[in-house]
Each structure stands twice: as C-alpha cells, then as structure tokens.
Amino acid sequence: MPPLLPATQRLPAVAAQDHDKITQVAARVDFTAMTASVIADLSEVARSATALRAFLHGLPGVDQVGAEQRAAMLATRSIKTTAKAYAIDLAIRMVDLTTLEGADTAGKVRALCAKAQRPDPADPSCPAVAAVCVYPAMVPTAVSALHGSGVHVASVATAFPSGQATLDVKIADTRAAVAAGADEIDMVINRGAFLSGHYLQVYEEIRAVRAACGAAHLKVILETGELATYDNVRRASWLAMLAGADFIKTSTGKVQPAATMPVTLVMLEAVRDFRDTTGRQVGVKPAGGIRTTKDAVRYLVLVNETAGEDWLDPHWFRFGASTLLNDLLMQRTKLTTGYYAGPDYFTVD
Amino acid sequence: MPTDRVDVRKTYKLFIGGAFPRSESGRTYQVTSAAGGFLANAALASRKDVRDAVVAARAAVPKWAGATAYNRGQVLYRVAELLEGRREQFAAEVTAFGEDPSTVHDAIDRWVWYAGWADKFAQVHGGANPVAGPYFNLSSPEPTGVVGIVAPAEPALLGLVSVVAPAIVTGNTVVILASEPRPLPAVSLAEVLATSDLPGGVVNILTGRPAETAPWLASHQDVNALDLTGVADPELATSLEQAAAGNLKRVVRPAAGPAWTADPGTARMAAFVETKTVWHPKGG
C-alpha cells in the first residue's frame, strides 16, 4: 500500500503567507496521483486489525509546533464591522445549544428549545440555532418543543460521556434516541480501546452505531482531551470517518482540555484530506470551552483557511456550546444598537 | 551617591480587575503640571477598556456585596492605613497640580470617615417598619451594583476619594473615569488599592478623556448607576443622562462646585443603594 500522504505534514515548514496557495497545489498533486489506489485501499483498510493499524499508523505525523503556531497565527486575524456581523449570525446558526447535566429537567429543556428557536426575542432578524443537544431521556421533550421549527434535535448516546458500556447497551441507547425522534446522534468512541491500540474494535463499534442510527446523522466524539497527542487525534479522525461518521466532534465537554484551536485544525485537515481522497464530506464540531464571540470567530477563520468555504455552513460545522450563545447575542446587540449589552437582558439558559 | 544616576520613571497605567494593563488602544497622553511642565505619560483609555472594566466590576460584585459590612469596613480602614504611608507621594502629586497638600490629609480622613459608616449605614438608612398586621417588616439598603463614576478634576485626591469611598462602602463596585488633566493621584490610589485587601475589580480606574469614554459607560447596559460629579460640560452631562436612561440607571448629577471640605453627610452613600423590604409573619 502506498503511504497516504496528505500534504498537511509539510505545512509548518512553509512561510505563513504562502501557506494556503502551496497547500492547495500540493494537495492536488498528491491526491490526483494517489486517488485511485488509495480509494481501493480505503475499502480494504478495515479488513483486519493489522491492516487498519498499519493504515492509521501510516498517516503522516502532525507537527505539533507547526499546528499550534498556525492556529495561533490565524487567531490574530481581525474581523470587524460587516464581516463580524456575518460571522456572528453564522456562528449563531452553527450553535448546538447543549444541556448535559444530571440535573436537567423537562422544564429546562423546554426553555432551552424556546431559546433555540428565537435566541433574541427582542430581534426577529436573529437566526435560530442549528440544534438542541440533550440526553436521550430528554429527546421526546425536545422533539415536541421543537416540532416544525427546523431546529434539529441532537442526542448524546452510547454511554456518554465515558463510552464505557457493552456494545449492546450502546446500540440500544442509540436506537432509543432515534426512535424518540432525534435527528442527530452524538456518540463517544471507546477511548480505552483506542488508546490500547484496539482500533478495529473502535471501528466496529462506530459501524454498529452508524447502522443503528438509520437516517439520523452520526457525530463521533473523539474526546481529544484524553487522546494525548495530535497524531492520535488525526488517527481517530480518520478512523471515525472511515467507519461512516457524518461529523467528527472534539469533546464531550466533561473533560479538560476540551476543544482547542490546534486540535480543531488537525481535524479540519483530516476532513479536507478525506474529501479529497474519497469525495465524501464530513463535518466538524468543536465542543466545550468556546465561550466568547472572539473565540467563535477565530474558529470560523480556522475553518475557512483550513477546510475551505464549503465547510462554512451549519450543515458542516457546528459549535457545541451553552454559554457561547449569550455572548454572541450580546455582541450582536452591540452591533445593532451601538451600545454594550448586559447579561441581564438575556436568559441564563 | 553617584550624580549620573538615571531616574527610574514610573509608567502610569490603567487599573482593571486588580491588574495594571496599558490601554487596549496603546495610546497615551501627556500630563502637565500647573506650571505647564511635563509630568508623565498617562494611558489614554478607549471604549474597549471601558468594556473590560465593566466586566471586571461586574465579576467583583457578588464577593464584595456579599462580604459582611464589618469586613468591608476593615478592608477600607486598611486602605486608609496605606494611604497614610504614601502621604508624601500624594502631597507631591497634588502640589504639582497647584493644589494645597492639606487636601491629602482631608482625603485620608474622609476615607476613614466613610470606612466607619460601613457597618452603621444599614442601621441609619434601614430599619423595622411598623405595619398594620402580624408581620415583621424590615427594610435594608442593598448595593445597586456597578457604578460608573466620572471623577472631579479638583481637588484631585480629595475629590476622587469623596466619590469613590461612598460608592464602595455599601458594597457597590465602581468604574472610575479619572480626571483628564489630573490623573496621577488616581493611578497612585490604584497602587494603594492593589496592595490592600480590596478584592480585584471592586475599583477600576481608567485615565484618559472622559468626554470620549463616558458615553460608552453611560449607555452600557450592565452598569447600574452613574455619578456625573466630574462632568463640567452641561451639554455632555445632559447627553450622558439621556444615555443612562436606556436601562434606568441611577444618576447623580450634583449642582456645580460641591464644597469638598464640608461634612459630606450620607447623601452619596444613599444614592447608590436599593432598599429591600422583607415581610415576615410573626406567628402566634
């Protein structure tokens, strides 16, 4: 098998200002030369544990310093006035409004659903968020509260957040959520198995959950805070995409560190290279730790400069967040009214 | 002592959330003495510094308002002790602006006077109300929240202390726009506060042009009250009052030229409190 070489591994050595141009050219060269054989290989990579392991370990390593510098460099972009207004509205449309607490009640979920549909009741031009993300037991409540609104219902499943349950339980969990009306399933991978090198087990579990999802979209949570290295993040991303994920998601939000810019950069490179290789587009969802509008806009810059404009859409990029929405709304109000808004004027949940 | 020693010049910075940042805008302006000589470069705050200061002040509210009145009084006494130790520095600063150094003593005495009110104000301003029913009915003054203050230019330290101390003694947190021509005592006061037990964010001091920054403070939806004592321009004061009406801020706009050395009374403390009244069944 020829080594799969997404051009990304050479990025950090290139001068920053020439990055994008060179990346795209290099990527095209690499992939046109390799596409046929790689696609043939991709259908075969999961034929055995050894083959899958060889493929994942054959992925080029991530230059840690380079990835962190690139993310830091993109975070310095200044986005103002009309571009900022566009970014804020886009970010609101990308929010998966999330409540994943043991203390969640039906009332809280209904309140959250009301907010999801009309985040700023004082301003009808404010768009709705992408989805509401809840525990499986709360799915029926969310489905009835969001009926006909166009806001999706996402449910975590597969023994969230640890993923430490038997496969039967995970599948039953997923089926129950889908049967209750969830449009999107956020599953967690088995990090224990992944970290001990049992890639095929993780792959088979994702395949099984994918099958249980039916028409629902599957988001696969890698929990990058527990994967330790960027190389592992890249491997887990490819593993999830090969197994049929519609989205790859950074974190559960229950582990620190949650989403970071460099981790998201690595995942965005993975989905870009995956589409170049297979033609299938996969979404990315950073979750946890994104609290301010400034952060959100930085992520959007990262998306645009890494994966490209195709991903600047709620269908392909999401923010898993709860407190972020209020900051977005306050910034939006500041832009429309001309004075600083206060948190007293927005709902807590 | 070597005669060719180079002076270590002080950088006058802002005071936000207990830290001393430069202005986000990177701007500075020159402060001159009464005689027109160069004194220092002070930070020229921007609207984003106002925004950051309000965030810091809001974050400090729960802890400061939740502290016992006795504890707030002790913290303020401690500030007075430190002010006393810096007396000469403050005297030099106000003298450079052509003021009488005795105003520094007045300022420290005033701080102590307000510190003494911390655990007495509720008794004077609140109390048990006689009601026609089997209830205890109690009123108590609670802090308003974040108070924006435009500090008077003169007297530089006494004026500043006279507007800051009554606002924080009852549990409010403040964002102060220091006087544009005479900001140095405000920055030195910040250094005193930073080394006292006052929690970071209770007092935030911005130097620069109040005419530029005050409108952002007045219209800010997360500011609860506004003190316009230092606004000399009546047109600006009126426009600030109008902006403050947006979220019904409490506004203090005293008649021109308060007598700074006179007994201030409790009016300034009473301006930034909300009366909470509780009905409690008597039983029986």
Textual characterization of the structure:
Chain A has 349 residues and is of the alpha/beta class. Chain A has a single domain (81-336), classed as TIM Barrel (Alpha-Beta Barrel). In chain A, 49% of the residues lie in helices and 9% in strands. Chain A has 13 helices and eight strands. Chain A has helices at 19-42, 49-58, 64-74, 81-94, 106-117, 139-146, 167-179, 191-195, 199-213, 230-242, 261-278, 293-306, 324-337, and strands at residues 95-98, 131-134, 152-157, 184-188, 217-221, 247-249, 283-285, 319-321. In chain A, helix 3 (64-74) crosses helix 11 (261-278), helix 4 (81-94) runs antiparallel to helix 13 (324-337) and helix 11 packs parallel to helix 12. In chain B, helix 1 (47-66) crosses helix 8 (210-219) and helix 8 runs parallel beside helix 9. Chain B starts with 27 loop residues before the first strand and ends with a strand. With 284 residues, chain B is an alpha/beta fold. Helix content of chain B is 42%, strand content 18%. Chain B is built from ten helices and ten strands. The A-B interface holds A 338-345 and B 51, 54, 58, 216, 219-223, 243, 246-247.
Task: Describe the SSE topology.
The complex is a heterodimer of chains A (349) and B (284).
Chain A: H1 19-42, H2 49-58, H3 64-74, H4 81-94, E1 95-98, H5 106-117, E2 131-134, H6 139-146, E3 152-157, H7 167-179, E4 184-188, H8 191-195, H9 199-213, E5 217-221, H10 230-242, E6 247-249, H11 261-278, E7 283-285, H12 293-306, E8 319-321, H13 324-337
Parallel strand pairs in A: 1-2, 1-8, 2-3, 3-4, 4-5, 5-6, 6-7
Chain B: E1 28-32, E2 38-43, H1 47-66, H2 69-85, H3 87-96, H4 102-117, H5 121-125, E3 127-128, E4 135-143, E5 146-150, H6 156-169, E6 173-177, H7 184-194, E7 203-206, H8 210-219, E8 225-227, H9 234-244, E9 250-252, H10 267-271, E10 273-281
Parallel strand pairs in B: 5-6, 5-8, 6-7, 8-9
Antiparallel strand pairs in B: 1-2, 3-4, 4-10
